[in-house]
Design goal:
- The chain has 323 residues and is mainly alpha-helical.
- The strands form two sheets. A four-stranded mixed β-sheet has the order 3-4-6-5, sandwiched between helices. A two-stranded antiparallel ribbon has the order 1-2.
- α8 packs across α15.
- The protein starts with 5 loop residues before the first strand and ends with a helix.
């Protein structure tokens, strides 16, 4: 896999970067090896082997006090083999689909190699794989991340109908894990700092993250980075000028009302402020387009400078964004 990410001829990364390796901790496999016949012994092994993560998982996923091992020995085998919610069948599918994670490993290593080149002081995270009981896709454990593998079995997995909305299913695929991990890491380590909190600042902040994410994972098409289908992405391209004109005509750009921000930025079946034909998070998509235009028109600006510049109005002005 090549390690040069380009954007319309502009190269951001050298080909001779110091390669980084992300350790993926297979807590999910260890958890699925717990047997009802030896549950207490197996649980003690999990606490010894996964000292940092096991208490977090027990309390956040099962809602059981971390030190209540006797109750856990009774509840855990039932949780793993539950038939009412389909956990037993789901966990068997996790074993099957995640027997080989080489592609995920390669994508994470390549992305964090690029990110380490930009920010060498940021610690590389451990990435735990875990069973969530349909409770969580991504968890943070101090500086590390955890991935609920049972939330990435493909949008057609039959038990998802009970726990998620239809529009969410398209991003519940194994191939989405590198995007979600790197995205979560970026949002956590490059926090939103604006005190104005208008739509403009939120769009630019999120758009910058998405732009950099696309460069860290260049093997993915842009629509997948955004979490869109190709048709949704093309709808935005075809309607870009109309979206922007709508934002400007309604004077939403400098609006800080929570309902307006939620409509433009939060995930959903569509962006209600724009159109029921639109995908969700159109505000973030426009922010990405502005960030991209800014970098294309300011070749001396580095990615670090883009991420650290908190003046959204200046970025918009110097982007010469004209859809």
């Amino acid at each position: 896999m090549g390690l040069t990410a380009c954007n319309k001829g502009r190269s951001y990364f050298p080909s001779n970067m110091d390669p980084q390796h992300i350790e993926i901790v297979r807590f999910d496999h260890a958890l699925l090896n717990v047997s009802a016949d030896s549950a207490l012994q197996d649980i003690r092994f999990l606490y010894d082997e996964y000292e940092a993560f096991m208490p977090v998982w027990t309390e956040n996923i099962l809602g059981i006090a971390a030190d209540d091992t006797l109750y856990l020995a009774e509840a855990l085998p039932q949780f793993l083999q539950d038939t009412l919610y389909g956990f037993g069948e789901t966990n068997a599918e996790v074993r099957r689909q995640f027997a080989n994670i080489d592609t995920i490993q390669e994508q994470l290593d390549a992305a964090f190699t690029r990110l380490h080149y930009l920010y060498a002081d940021l610690p590389l995270p451990l990435v735990y794989f875990f069973i969530s009981g349909f409770n969580a896709s991504i968890l943070f454990v101090d500086d590390d991340l955890a991935v609920g593998t049972d939330m990435y079995l493909g949008g057609d997995w039959k038990y998802y109908n009970r726990v998620v909305y239809e529009y969410q299913k398209q991003n519940m695929r194994k191939s989405c894990i590198p995007i979600d991990v790197v995205s979560a890491y970026l949002f956590r380590n490059i926090p939103y700092t604006s005190v104005k909190n208008r739509l403009l600042e939120n769009m630019i902040y999120r758009g910058k993250i998405m732009y950099v994410l696309s460069l860290l994972l260049p093997d993915y098409p842009e629509y997948e980075i955004m979490g869109y289908t190709e048709d949704q992405w093309n709808w935005c391209i075809d309607n870009e000028r109309a979206i922007w004109n709508h934002i400007m005509d309604k004077r939403d750009l400098f609006n800080s009302e929570s309902m307006v921000l939620t409509s433009y930025l939060n995930d959903g079946p569509f962006t209600s402020e724009v159109s029921q034909d639109s995908p969700g998070r159109v505000g973030t998509w426009i922010g990405w387009r502005i960030a991209q235009s800014y970098m294309e028109n300011n070749p001396d600006v580095t990615l670090q400078q883009l991420l650290e510049d908190g003046d959204a109005q200046l970025i918009l002005r110097n982007s010469f964004y004209k859809p």
